[in-house]
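Notes from the 1:1 (GR / supervisor)

We went over the backlog. Supervisor wanted to see one worked example end to end before approving the batch request, so GR pasted a single chain during the call. The sequence is below; no edits were made to it. Supervisor asked that the structure be written out right there so they could see what the output format looks like.
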Amino acid sequence: MIKGTFPIERFQNIETPFYYYDTRVLRETLDTIREELRHNPEYEMHYAIKANANPKILRIISAAGFGADCVSGGEVRAAIEAGFPASKVVFAGVGKSDREIDLALRHSIACFNVESLEELQVINERAASLGTIAPVAFRINPNVDACTHAKITTGLSENKFGIDLGDTERAIRTAHSLAHIRYEGLHFHIGSQILTDAPFRRLCHRINELQERLERQGIHTPGINVGGGLGISYEHPDDESIPRFEPYFDTFRRHLALRPGQQLHFELGRSVVGQCGTLIARVLYVKQGTTRRFLILDAGMTELVRPAMYGARHAVQRIALPTDAAPAADAPRCTYDVVGRLRQRPTPAPLPARRPHRHPLRRSLWRKHGLHLQPAPPAPHHRAVSEPEQPVKSKNPTQRAPHARSYFLSKTPKHPRAAPPVPKEKQLSGAS
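Structure output shown during the call:
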């Protein structure tokens, strides 16, 4: 199947830039994945919604019978609305808020991919408040280099994601000790845009070693999630519009030793939808520089941020309109730098200044209960520190910092003049 087949006649009446999705390519890709999974009933596929959350794209993928991998509450909601069954929805991501956790719990999703023990405690608290059990899998950093760009390598020991490999046993035993947590398995994700099987082989060997270690301690793991990461051809999309899924799945089939009854989960994203999408733009100007030629497009970093983020490359193809004259075979070839404009939202007009509310009854109630408004202390990392300070310890190890506020309510001392000054450490502890 050729990716670069476009209904050019339809494009003439559409304002650029826009994204064009070839659903035929998408459905062919989904059929290829299903054929690979058909031979392995213990394999389960979850589409990583962060790759593309277009509602129609999501409905097509959900209709194919796949699950969803989400990294926000909004993605969880989008997956449910698109028809993904909650029993196949996984909620990952490092920063899950209480509101997002509650949303996922109310929908009874399949699993939370937990990034830290602190997050585990919070999920247990939220599940207890809702009277339910939260299924969790621990994201473990296997310290495997994906051999891609540093910004999309996520499986090393010092990455912000996941739990250190040496803390796996402690995390699992903590999960077993919590009344509203059910341990479901282990989760791994080493990176994105991986084009060789060597990193996946190393991941399999690391998982095998970890499972053997856990079994010696009597710990059984129901499921394994190996994430995604399979790359696509950006520079030659027409030559490989369907990624090579067979060697990808075959790597795990040959090198990962699953236990009886164990499920193996995948979270593919860009390899599912990357080749079905194309950014369509128009040439606004042709500019001749001192030594270089430039094509100025009406699309830029706003529409395609990937090259600007980490120097990625992709194919640029000229689509000729029916009215365009075809270039002669012997016409000279020119090289251009393709650049686009940065689209910025207009600056909103400032809101009119509001007079502070001075309702006498409200002010008297505040005085009655000893409340007053005072500026919140700055965060510790915003303060200029001239000498080392002792860390502030909280009585509750699961206590988290609240959302930033300009002001907070505090009790007024009965004798403010006689009250001793409050140390900064105490102030910070009370506001944390």
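Supervisor's comment: Residues 22-274 form a domain with the TIM Barrel fold (CATH 3.20.20.10).
Batch request approved.
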